[in-house]
Amino acid sequence: MLSTHIDTWQMTEPGKLLRTKIAMPALRPGEVVVKIAGCGVCHTDLSYFYMGVPTVQKPPLSLGHEISGVIVGGREDLIGKEVVVPAVIPCGDCELCRTGRGNRCLAQKMPGNSMGIYGGFSSHIVADARFLCLVGNRGATPLEHLSVVADAVTTPYQAAKRADLKAGDRVIVIGAAGGVGSFMTQTAKGMGAAAVIGIDINEEKLRTMTGFGADFVINPKGKSAKDVKELIKGFCKDRGIPANTNWKIFEVTGSKPGQELALALLSFVGKLIVVGYGTEETSYMLSKLMAFDAEIIGTWGCPPERYAEVLAMCLDGRIQLGPFVETRPMSRIAETFEQAHDGALNKRVILTPDF
């Protein structure tokens, strides 16, 4: 029998969590109940919890938008199906949705922000079945690991699509060892990039990326943009490839230093794709874009119709999840938030319900 309530960890106000129960909502046509297997902890959750970034639904609400689980209620033909719940759920009917840009649908909903009080740090969530990604045969990959597909992996994939990334391209990832950057690096290589340069200030994690998509890594700490360019030139000389043209640069940190370095590296017929979010302003002489015949592109989320492509990359090994995630019981949510906020986590944590 379907539960009459949802167990959940709610943010009652920024900085405060409460374990509680809320009523299971009445299902509308097309909706299903997903029993949550895992929910990833994202920097966005920390922004709401610690930094005062406002949510559309005012507290109390449950945070969490990287969700995988099993359908246990609603449409009979879907009961028992394993799914990934998209982090950005479009309306499906507006002009943006009809023209393939549903990831930026102005009526979109996001678990843990704008889907009422419901988010993934819970036992269950109700969602529109139209937009769920069916998992199918996942082999030995734990279902909870697939929760990070909903944001940390699909966001880089959408960024690569916005860059029109193709086999043989040359790529630079700034923030290459971070929670999203590590998947951006793998995605670029998995989509056929001929050369991937990873840039990050975390030396230990950066070196790891040489085994997960990065052909060359640079720690920019203490280095000028000119110094970084010289290192790139050296790599290109060894490879026999052009050093100053056609780079596709993905800025994943959202930090001002990361953005400034990305802009400094942007050159002839290059593309800079802004993936990371930050609040500081960065200046740039736009006439350089004209002189370079270059582009700066923003990217947001990923439309649900592309989730299956990303899932396939995760299940066939082009993108590795296991080395970059850690599972913990959801009862450790407060401790995990604190460690994530302090930068003390080496992997993306997935919280599994233990109510």
Which tags fit this structure?
single chain; 355 residues; alpha/beta; 7-stranded mixed β-sheet; 6-stranded parallel β-sheet; 10 helices; globular
Give a short account of the largest sheet.
7 strands, mixed
Which shape, going by the Cα principal axes? globular
Q: Please report the distance between the alpha carbons of the first and last residues.
A: 17 Å
Sketch the topology as an H/E string, one letter per element. EEEHEEEHEEHEHEHEHEHEHEHEHE
Rg on CA atoms, Å: 20 Å
Low-confidence stretches: none
Secondary structure blueprint with pairings:
Layout: E1 5-13, E2 16-23, E3 31-40, H1 43-50, E4 61-62, E5 66-73, E6 82-85, H2 95-98, E7 124-128, E8 133-134, H3 154-162, E9 170-174, H4 181-190, E10 195-199, H5 203-208, E11 216-218, H6 225-239, E12 247-251, H7 256-265, E13 271-274, H8 287-292, E14 295-298, H9 307-315, E15 325-329, H10 333-341, E16 348-352
Helix pairs in contact: 3-4
